[in-house]
Structures are given as C-alpha cells and as structure tokens.
C-alpha cells in the first residue's frame, strides 16, 4: 500500500478492525518513510452485478454512487456515517443475496426507500422526491399522507 502523502510503499499496520457487519476491514497504517498515518478499507466487491437503468442501458453496480445518493438524502439529519455505511452494506447484501446478474434501478430505489423509512422519515421523503421525480407539492402530500395517518393513530 502506497502512502498517500509521500508515495512510499513502506508502511506498518497499527490497528485492524472490522465494520459494516464484518463485510469491511479497516486498517490504520503508519508510513515508515514520512511518519504520517492513514486509513485503508478492504471490502468484498460485488461481482458482476449490472444495473438496468430506466432508459434500458446497463452499467456496473457502483456502491459509491448509491452511497452519495443516500448521503444527500441524509444531509443535515441526525444520522451518523456508521448508520449510512450500515445501510449501504445492507443494500449490497440484499442485492448480492438475490443472485441475479442484473438488477433494475426500480428495485434498488424501492429497497433504499424501505430502509430509509425505517432510519429517518425526512431522509426517506428527500430520497423519494428525487427517485419518484416529484413535480409539485401535491406529490409530497401524497407521499406524506400515509405516514401522517400512521403517526396520528399512535
């Protein structure tokens, strides 16, 4: 592993921990040349899963793109990085466990919304507004109505 500061390939692992339910290994390293510390992550790669986009094109599954969309929905919400990482890991596990070589964006979007609804309702509505392409306030009201009804019953 090359040091991101001095590009030396001479480093030492200081600490190793698992995270994201054991699917990721986090290693804290120290460069033996410049003395600076950095962190690396080792994760299982989703193999050969392709995403079928709405326009019919097929692209490789991109966990970073998925994470960015979830982070945008969770922006300025009381949701930790660990919770977002766990949610992304859970989504990857769901996608991998299906065993399909190709997955629709609709399927992924619905799974994201299911998990966000459990985590944070505001993040859920934010994601839904982009995913379902809300055009006006009525679309928001229609999405919120069942949630409000459920909340008033408790």
What does this structure look like?
This protein is an alpha+beta fold and 154 residues long. Helices cover 46% and strands 21% of the residues. The chain contains five helices and six strands. It has helices at residues 63-73, 81-97, 105-119, 121-131, 137-153, and strands at 11-19, 24-31, 37-43, 50-52, 58-60, 102-104. The strands form two sheets. The protein has a three-stranded antiparallel beta sheet with strand order 1-2-3, with no helix packed on it. Strands 5-4-6 form a three-stranded mixed beta sheet. A hairpin with a 5-residue loop joins strand 2 and strand 3. Helix 1 (63-73) packs across helix 2 and helix 3 (105-119) packs antiparallel against helix 4 (121-131). The radius of gyration is 19 Å and the shape is elongated. The protein starts with 10 loop residues before the first strand and ends with a helix.
Helix-strand blueprint:
Layout: E1 11-19, E2 24-31, E3 37-43, E4 50-52, E5 58-60, H1 63-73, H2 81-97, E6 102-104, H3 105-119, H4 121-131, H5 137-153
Parallel strand pairs: 4-6
Antiparallel strand pairs: 1-2, 2-3, 4-5
Helix pairs in contact: 1-2, 1-4, 3-4
